[in-house]
Amino acid sequence: MDLISGVANVAGIAGAAAPFVRRGALERQFHACLARALRQAFAEQDRDDRGATASLVADSLKPQEAYRLLAQHDPQLAAPDRVDRWSLTLRQALPALDVLDEQAIDIPRLAQETARLLAQEIERAARQPDSALALPLLLARSAPADSGAGVGVPEAMASMFARTPSGAVSNIATLPLSEQPVTRPEQDVVEETLSAHRLAVIAGGQGAGKSVLAEMTARSWSAHEDHELVWWVSAKTPQLLLDACEALLQEFGEQPTGDLPSQVRSLLARRSGWLVVVDDAPAFDTVRELLPSEHANGTVLVTTRSAASFPKHAVVQVDGADDPTLRGIARRRLPDDVSEGEIDELLGACAGNPLIVSTACGYVAETGTSVASLVALMRSSPSRVLAGRPESAGFVGVLAAVRDDAGGRLTWQLLVAVAVSGGTGVPRRLFEKAFAEKTDAQLRIDEAFRELIGIGVVSIRGALVQSHALTASVVLDLTEQPLRAESADLLVEAVLGLIDVPGRSLLPGLAAVIDAVDPLLETQRASRVVARTLLAERLAEQGSVSGAYRQIQAARAVPFVHESPDAQMFILQSEARVHLLAGESGQAKQAAERVVADATAPDDLRAAAHVTIAWAEEALGDPAAARRSIAETLRLMPDDEGVQSLHGHFFLSDVPAAERVAGYLELVERADEEMRGHFLTMASRSSIEAGHPSEAVEYARRALRIDREVGGERSLHVARDLNDLGMALIADGQLEQASTALEESIELYREDHESHSHTALPLLHLGRLLTLRAQETQPPDAELLSQAHRTLGEAIDLQRRAAPDSDDHASILYALGDVMLLSGDASGALDSYRESARIDRAVHGEAHREVGVDVARMMQAQLQLGDADGALSSFGTVKTQVPEWERVDPNLAVRLLCMQAGALLALPPQRVLQKAELTTVVSRIQVLLRVPSVSDDHRTMAREIVLRVAQQIR
């Protein structure tokens, strides 16, 4: 007993004696004490099951795991606060075992009683002969106070210094910062930065491995540099920083006074060759207050979660680790029989974060669970894995500290809102809107974001907020249900406030937020439906058709909808709008007619449905039906200025083009900001039709200026206007400027989405422009035709995905047929024209002029193929409509009759039974040539065919 008779002697041999303790026997005896404590604690809760539940809990904790969880380091067996520590640990650990009914058992009380009883059981067991607990307990009681309760925590070990082999005073060797650290490539960068600047700042989020990297760098650096002092100081809290300063001063025999950092500066200034490592520094000022000016005598290594205040040249960012580093961490902690495939699976669940990888691998090693089970647990309940050791900061500990210690409650509310939102590419503006009513909201939310960015749980890139799903899951685990619900309510109201805000990049993020918060909203909350339907319409406007239909389906899935006829009609009208915006005019009309037919539907909803029908009827080529629908809208809402403007639009659709231009210009003066651009583009299109392309260019440019002022330089309305400007410039012969406008329109649409369906229209017009340029030479320029073919092919691919049966798709197919015809591929052109005609018949009906245009081109291709019979057969499909077109569209009638005459001329002479048939066709053509509105191109075509017929008959 002389060997351990004094406190100093006991403390001195603690490190030597510990290896001789039979660790397995110690862990088993400790586990037995825990089992007895649990049995008594359960009995005090009147659990009359003869200790079965206590045994179940004890069996769920293996001896090694129980000892690691509660004791960790032998001195904790006698620490003054051991009961409080054990109680806190058990409160976290017991529910995670999944063997207790938390509704039936008071977990906090059970944890407190078990901890108290465990301390008594350990004392009792240590007094037994040959007890494995006796020596560790004696050593723990005899250890100096400075190395007692905090053993195992780097901050508490900061006062322990030793001499390195080179003679430097250092406390790094006494810090258990890492277990089996893995070399990282960033270490070379850190050392190079230290060499160049005498300062290196390792910055990154929680768990990125900053401290381990700093430790390895410090050990390597101090091994090959001549240092008098290597000092590791934790700056996690002001108190820890002051404690470290006090310990350093005492180590060098100085009496600490009031201004400890000033004393440290003086001490370092008098010494040369020192390395100071400041871990978890909140800002550069924290570091500077410890160091002499310019720290010329030494080197400084810092870790921080926010590099904003540090010199940029000294910062080394380590937000994650590369694959070899993560694999090295996994391999050192996992059992040898874990395969590479299982490691791949595990790493995939760990967000590239070294701390998460290490903790997850430790969980596998300690519990014996399979990797597949671990991954499933990470997805369903990551907090159970990421809690790690009770003393470890880990993700759970860091986020709990934000909840408990945040400078302002807004920081935690904001983090909960980020977690509730899903945290993947969410527009920052959404959170600003959600918290707008808070006092000094903008300033406070900036501060809250800075704090969250500083601890590495949130990042902001391109005005989008990012937070990993693991972080979000842990935050939600730490959050009470009322706050989660409150956050969901704030976010959905913010979504409703931002849906109509110009700026198309918002919508995908808003859609993701609605998906994330929906399960947390009240079942009967109407905003669940309103947000979905408004998003659907905005997504459809921006060409995200599949996303729009998904929102409609989600709105219908809201539980209260099947019991609410009004909600069903509301969703149906929104679906009709989506059909219309997607180019599915027939489906839009059918859906809106169902809304109109419901006499119980609110007037404003029925009025909106009539507007949808009017637009659909116009697209389907029935202006009279469109006017009837818009008139009914005006009857239902006679005082609405927007409806009045739309009424004027539809009643202009059937008047001569010149009158239409004047009418649209009048509407521009009466309309609100959002509609002015639309009416100017309609005036531009009407001017093209009226034969005034220069005026069309002017109106399109006015629309462009207005919409840029209203929605910004890069809005989708601007993209639409640029497309119309391109059309007008083509009509005016300004092909170079038209190409520039169309390419910018395409660029704007693609900024929103690489496959934005609305991109098809400027692609169509660009393809037509390239075709025109190709025709400037004879024969047509093959390279330009090839470019036109590729451009129109892109447009067709987009339109097939968005609206394969729309008239826009037919127009693109028609333009592609023209390119093929010019390229000598008459067969391919015929197929394209036939598909265009099929779509136009389905959309517009047999009598529509677009069908006649398609048939005329089909006949031209068939004549190039030498198939005169086929051409006459095609003419027969529209023969009965030609007299009407002679009256209302003489240009189309001239073209069809010329094609018919050409086909008759191409027949063998013996097939022409009556010259009278050709004579009749020519007579009809000559009558049409007297109509003033027939264009010069059509007159030239007609005169040529008349001359050929005259020569044939002669």
Description:
The chain is 65% helix and 4% strand. It is built from 46 helices and ten strands. The strands form two sheets. It has a seven-stranded mixed sheet, with helices on both faces. A three-stranded antiparallel sheet has the order 8-10-9. Helix 19 (409-421) crosses helix 21, helix 37 runs parallel beside helix 39 (807-822) and helix 41 (849-864) runs antiparallel to helix 42. The radius of gyration is 40 Å and the shape is elongated.
Amino-to-carboxy terminus distance? 140 Å
The number of helical segments is 46
Tell me roughly what share of residues is in helical segments: 55-70%
The percent range for strand residues is: under 5%
Q: What structural class should be given to the helix and strand makeup?
A: mainly alpha
Please summarize what this structure is.
With 954 residues, the protein is mainly alpha-helical.
What key phrases describe this protein's structure?
954 residues; elongated; mainly alpha; disordered N terminus; 46 helices
